[in-house]
Amino acid sequence: MLSGQLKPWFVATALIAVFTLQSFFASLQKSTTGDEPAHIAAGLSYLETRIFNLNLQHPPLVKELSAATLLMAGVRFPRTKEAMAAVEAPPNASGAEWVVGNAIIGAGSNRVLFWARLPMILVGALLGVFLYWFGRRIVGEAAALGAVFLYALDPNVIAHSYLVTTDVGLAAFALLFLFTLWRYIEQPGVARLVWCGVAMGLMLGAKYSGVFLLPVAAALMAAACVRRTATVTARTAAPPRSRKRAAPLAEEVRGKLTIDTARLYALARSLVVMGLIASMVIWALFLFRSPFLYFEGMQRVNADHSPVFNAYMAGELKPKFTSYFAVCYLLKEPLAAILLAGAGLRLLVRSGKVTRLGKLFLLIPPAVLFASYTWGADDIGVRYIIPILPFAWLLGGLALSTLLRSASRGAQIAGVLFCAWLVVAAIGIYPDHLSYFNESACALDAPSKIGWDGGTACGPAWLADSNLDWGQGLKQLKVWLDAHGQNRPLYLATFPNTPADYYGLQFKTPVLEESPRPGLHVLSAHWIATLPALRQKLRMPMPYWVPLARPTAIVGHALYVYDVPGAPGQPNASR
User: Fold this and answer.
1) Region class of 445: left (phi > 0), else alpha (psi between -120 and 50), else beta
2) Are residues 478 and 386 in the same domain?
């Protein structure tokens, strides 16, 4: 797969460095996203006031990592009357953490975001390290390097790796936990048991959905105690055709499944000890306040979500789409990565080199997580299934390494083409990874729109919310307006709860009327996707010209700019 002169660890380090550099430099160009103010405010409030109230619907680990570097940079939680009232407000007070977070970021957005995001980038890099460690043990060195290659160029994980949010953190620490669990099952020991407990605590401290991996861990440990023992039985010989030659007796080898009960009890006790160590880690993350805060936070999950929320998919608005996260994966992941993952799954099932337990480690955790997200998560973005992607990368790495190391020249060429396809997609979408869609988004209805950035131009036809725009393009919009705005009136409709005044944008909110007013109208891709569906579902007076007009520019793949000349009230949007 790679030159024999290069050490595998060196190649893995180089790929992780490629990922980290993309994440770091993209973060410098991107503005505050929807959930970051809440997490930033909450983390600072925890470390400075030791009161765990703001944003308790997410565990504290990621928020405290971000707050720690902010404190080192001199950023403090505001001790204003309003901020302290928010800290002490009743649970789930509407928007309290966003108000405080916006005040903190508004005091110096570039500086605050730089220091707040720095630990997130490091956690994203650690995900690559854990992926390599885990992959080496399960699928081998070459496949692990292939998985790290897929990780280093994945637009979805790059997009969220620098944000002060929880999904990449859960992916990293869940993978660490599974790696330490595998190591402990291989060779139990006190040190490995402690590491399992610590990793479990970090996983649970990153996001509450980590609890779904606890029964998975128990099932994997139980599976490790199952043995297949061979028994040989003699079968009656068939009557010989000739009396001169006797037919030999046939022997039949049968496999019998047995359970090593002694080991099962030992691993069960170990799981309890891991849980106790993890509870101490979680208690430490809550700064040794009430040990029941974790369970209180679990009860707040989704408590602040609107009961009338409707998700968007393929032109429709519904409270829930059963296929939502499957569609997200098939549209938002690079097509090359999807094809490789599918081929890798076939190879894994047929593989005799990967142990039965290794196969279970690769297949059960993502299946359980995917089912839990499909059943319980709001349909608001591919980001929820980021913890599942490492398993897809490992499958893809298995397929990629098989192609590149094949004796067939055609297979080697196919492997190289897959690699080139992934590189082109990564370059084509940089630095706008969050908005990425693969070529299949345009393949059916608008193949002419397929470009170096895949099918990103067709994204609004399929999904909305943080799949398209999460407020991340406002800094880029300011740069574009400085070059092209010519002091024209600006009407701006951003993603909800993403203040644009951080970046010196002087604007008015567009009026929901059928004819646009003269000036520059800038609409979030989220609204481009959902306005037609909202207009039809709610029978509201929406600007009908938006779906018909041709944008003057699309800034950061997320903000659609319409230049409307003419007198007020005339629908002169360029078409």
Assistant:
1) alpha
2) no
| Same-domain check for residues 25 and 132 | yes
Do the domain assignments include residue 412? no
Distance CA 76, CA 173 (A): 28
Rounded to 10 deg, the angle between the 8-29 and 141-152 helix axes is 10
Residue 95 lies in a domain: yes
CB 177 within 8 A of CB 196: yes
Residue at a domain's end among 368, 400, 432: 400
Q: Quickly list DSSP for 417-473.
A: HHHHHHHHHHHHHTT-GGG-B-THHHHTT-GGG-BTTBTGGGGGGTB-GGGT-SSTT
The rounded distance, in Å, linking the Cα atoms of 170 and 123 is 10
Question: What are 525's two structure tokens?
Answer: 């891709």
In the predicted model, is pLDDT for residue 91 greater than 90? Answer: no
Tell me the per-residue pLDDT of 116-144, one tens digit each, with 9 for 90 and over: 999 999 999 999 999 999 999 999 999 99
Q: Are residues 387 and 488 in the same domain?
A: no
Q: What gap in Å lies between CA 105 and CA 111, rounded to an integer?
A: 8
At 523 the three-state DSSP class reads strand
Domain housing 483: 473-564
- Kindly state whether residues 373 and 477 are assigned to the same domain: no
Residue 282 sits in the same domain as residue 393: yes
Would you place residue 1 in the very low, low, confident or very high pLDDT band (cuts 50, 70, 90)? very low
Domain end (from 349, 372, 400) = 400
Q: Are 164 and 206 in contact (CB under 8 A)?
A: no
66 and 155 both lie in a single domain: yes
- Give CA–CA dist 495/185, Å, rounded: 47
Cis link prior to 447 (omega < 30° from 0)?
A: no
Domain total in the chain: 2
In tens, the pLDDT along 250-308 reads 455 556 778 899 999 999 999 999 999 999 999 999 999 988 999 999 998 877 677 77
Q: Which two tokens stand for residue 390?
A: 């490492």
What contacts 148, CB < 8 A, 6 or more positions away?
12, 15, 16, 128, 131, 132, 135, 393, 397
Which of the four pLDDT bands, split at 50, 70 and 90, describes residue 234? low
How many C-alpha atoms does 139 have within 13 Å on its Cβ side? 36
